[in-house]
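Help!! Second protein's tokens look totally different from the first
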Amino acid sequence: AQKDSEDFDTKNARLGRPQSPHLTIYRPQLTTILSLTHRATGMALGGIVTVWGIGGLFTSGHFSENLAAVESMHLSPALLLAVKATLAFPLCYHYINGIRHLAWDMGKFLTIKEVYLTGYSVLAVSVILTAFLASL
């Protein structure tokens, strides 16, 4: 009899069982990319809120004064648009894809065709909303 202290990996190696495949052996699919992007944008939003919150503790003045300081730098419109889009995209994507996940939780749009259609729709709406917000 084997010892009870034998761990999972050792037992599988002894029995000649293969290890579970890693994500790197699969061809990237829309569903995989959207799932990873949803997680990444969630982490980005958390990071942005954390940095802004901690930054608020260490900056003097009100938001309007800090905004005036940024405006006094006379940054190019292209750079400002890029920064605003970079900040807006995680919010737009995560929000719209969150609605998609809520629909799935209600048992809607779960066929492969619907999953892909809603996936492309999430991307399109996210880009449109990002462009709108960045242009403000």
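Here's the second one for comparison:
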Amino acid sequence: ENSSAATTTALNHHHHHLSPYDDDGRPKRTGTVWTTSSHVITAVIGSGVLSLAWSIGQLGWIGGPLVLLFFSVVTLYTSYFLADSYRVGDPINGKRSYTYMEAIDNILGGKNFIFCGIMQYINLYATAIGFTIGAAISMM
């Protein structure tokens, strides 16, 4: 009787992997290490990298590498934080957060969700202005 239950569990588990949907009903993600790496590279190597050498040069041989190291640690910390907040509650079976705002709503909720949303859009707006000015200066 136990072997029958084990076989049924194994079959259900096997069929779960054949399903085109994840455990939350959304289409299964098909990313690989290569697609993930390409997304990380395109996110990290952006227009900000173009001014990195000049910024380091302005800070000098001591300040430049120290600031670069500091922001590397901040980036690593926030990456760990975002990875930990991908699922709420249980890291294996918890509810997934597909967007930054969904993670904020699942974890903090309420007024914090509204405040973080406003801050996110202000940041997006300010970044767009900065990129527009930077592009205009570069074209000159």
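Reply: Different proteins will give different token patterns, so don't panic. The CA atoms of residues 29 and 72 lie 29 Å apart.
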